[in-house]
Specification:
The chain is of the alpha+beta class. The protein is built from nine helices and nine strands.
Length: about 375
């Protein structure tokens, strides 16, 4: 029964309830003692001790002490000779009175400690169950991701083998198309492997940044070169709306390109044909704020808090990727001491925002750290 109590309502309770119930237990013990006046005194002492034990067990040490004090002083006033007087004439009854006080305090202390141990045990059990459930979910998610990665790698490897065999068996065909297919499959395999390696570095805290200065326009243009063929296949337009695009940003260029590649790749993947993606940017203090806005299906409100979690995907999109891209985006942005967030409404598209640090003017005493390495 004790293990099933709610911590907030049953174990702790309010002060009024705890001490009020302790008083009720003390009064109840005094009433029951009335029926044992003709019994042995040891039997009569057992009743208030039970009340003290119950009070300490359910409400703590101090409520137990309150119950003991009520039983001790009110009991002496009502039942010990001379009646209705706090002075105890009989030495034997005085001894019993002190014996009860000592036993009551011991019972209150021991039972309160037992209560604390039970509460701690229950809390540890709840934490263990929570961690166990989280571990089960993580293992399941990892197995699903490994299955998706294995499937994608197998498909790309199959495409490479098929086109290689086609080139070997048919010497008269134009090799450009099979070669392009092999190259694209290899790039997709490399992207999957890079995502897994990046995630491992982010998790271990060993993501190394090779910082150098780049302007916002150059970063976006390089990212567009990578994703334009994919966008072209679905007739998706990508527009740039960059303000202050000549400002210098301190960043690791390949990793920032990966941020754009992952965000733009997700937008293209989940959008229908003939949609539009807008890449915006502007300076804000010592940061440059980028945004990627799409016309995709959007993200439901209950899924938004999990969008950057590792291995997480929306249920309806679960077969369209590994669920690693956005967690890698978050890790790279935070390694640059930037922030990343998303605004989205289901059915109306999404806008992802992230910030990167602007290049700060170098003081005369500060050494130039351009092209230097930084471990995040």
């Amino acid at each position: 029964m004790i293990y099933e109590m709610n911590d907030q309502r049953d174990f702790k309770g309010t002060l009024l309830f705890r001490y009020g119930t302790a008083i009720v237990l003390g009064v109840a013990a005094l009433v029951i003692m009335r029926f044992f006046e003709t019994e042995e005194e040891v039997t009569a002492l057992q009743i208030p001790l039970v009340a003290v034990t119950l009070s300490s067990l359910f409400f703590g040490f101090f409520p137990g002490v309150l119950t003991a004090l009520i039983c001790s002083f009110a009991g002496a006033y009502l039942y010990l000779e001379p009646a209705h007087n706090m002075f105890i004439a009989d030495h034997g009854e005085t001894l019993h009175w002190w014996l009860f006080n000592v036993l009551a305090l011991l019972m209150a202390s021991i039972t309160a400690r037992l209560r604390s141990a039970l509460i701690q045990n229950r809390r540890l059990r709840i934490q263990y169950e929570s961690l166990y459930e989280e571990a089960k979910k993580a293992v399941k998610a990892r197995e699903e991701v490994l299955a998706i990665v294995s499937h994608d790698l197998r498909n790309d490897l199959g495409s490479i083998m098929m086109n290689s065999e086609l080139l070997l068996r048919n010497t008269n065909i134009d090799p450009k198309r099979p070669a392009a297919m092999i190259k694209r499959s290899g790039e997709q395999m490399n992207g999957l492997i890079e995502n897994l390696l990046s995630l491992a570095k982010i998790d271990s805290g060993h993501l190394t940044l090779e910082l150098s200065s780049h302007n916002a326009r150059g970063l976006v243009d390089e990212a567009l070169e990578l994703v334009s063929p994919l966008a072209g296949q679905k007739s998706i337009q990508i527009q740039k709306q960059l303000l202050n695009d000549d400002v210098q940003i301190d960043c690791d260029q390949p990793k920032v390109i990966r941020i754009f590649s992952n965000l733009l790749g997700n937008s293209i993947k989940f959008m229908g044909k003939k949609g539009k993606i807008i890449i915006s940017g502007k300076s804000e203090g010592d940061r440059y704020l980028f945004s990627v806005q799409d016309q995709g299906p959007g993200i439901s409100e209950q899924d938004l808090p999990h969008i950057f979690d590792r291995f997480w995907q929306e249920r309806k999109m679960a077969q369209k990727g590994t669920g690693l891209g956005l967690s890698i985006v978050k890790g790279i942005v935070e390694a640059h001491h930037g922030s990343v967030w998303v605004n989205s409404k289901f059915g109306e598209g999404s806008t992802f925002y992230f910030t990167l640090p602007l290049k700060q003017p170098r003081s005369e005493t500060q050494p130039d750290v351009s092209n230097g390495k930084k471990s995040a």
